[in-house]
Amino acid sequence: MRNVLLIASAMLIPMSLVFEQSFELDLERSQTIYLVILGIFHAGVVYALFNRLIRQEGALFTSFSNYIVPVIGMILGFFFLHEALSIQQLIGMGVIMMSLVLSDEKIISMLIRK
Fold first, then answer.
1. Helix (H) or strand (E) holding 13
2. Any idea where the domains of the chain sit in the sequence?
3. What mean pLDDT, rounded, does the chain reach?
4. pLDDT score of 78
5. What stretches of 20-81 show up as alpha helix (H) in DSSP?
6. What is the pLDDT of residue 108?
7. Sign (positive/negative) of CA torsion 32, 41, 60, 2?
8. Residue numbers of the chain with a pLDDT score lower than 70
């Protein structure tokens, strides 16, 4: 995960020097504090939970859990931001969830036994 961010930064920084006007950020003190809290605390919590999930469920399951992120985002947007869900989004969520179910060997072996 770190390598992805490092490579993305290495590619985006030169482009931003060419295309952007300046790097001025007019942040208040409280905004800076919140950015530091988000960057250190929340990223650390997510990293710890990600590693715990790898230990408990394995790397394969953990990699599949990343596919649920857009589904959760759409559901949260629907309930909290009152965003509309199109039929394409619902079909996409169904495809993602079915793919995750079918990729789990335990569920497949249970279905075959019945």
1. helix 2-19
2. 25-57, 59-114
3. 85
4. 95
5. 29-37, 43-57, 59-65, 69-80
6. 73
7. positive
8. 1-2, 23, 107, 114
User: Torsion-angle region of residue 84: left (phi > 0), alpha (psi -120 to 50) or beta?
Assistant: beta
Closest CA to 66 of 91, 99, 37: 99
Going by C-alpha positions, the residue among 57, 74, 69, 67 that lies closest to residue 95 is: 67
Interatomic CA distance for residues 60 and 54, integer angstroms: 8
For residues 94 and 67, the answer to whether their CB atoms sit within 8 Å is no
11-34 CB burial, b ≥16 within 10 A, e <16: eeeeeeeeeeeeeeeeeeeeeeee
C-alpha span between 110 and 38 (Å, rounded): 42
**All residues at 6 or more sequence positions from 77 whose CB lies less than 8 Å from its CB, including other chains:** 83
Alpha carbons 38 and 96: distance in angstroms, whole number: 29
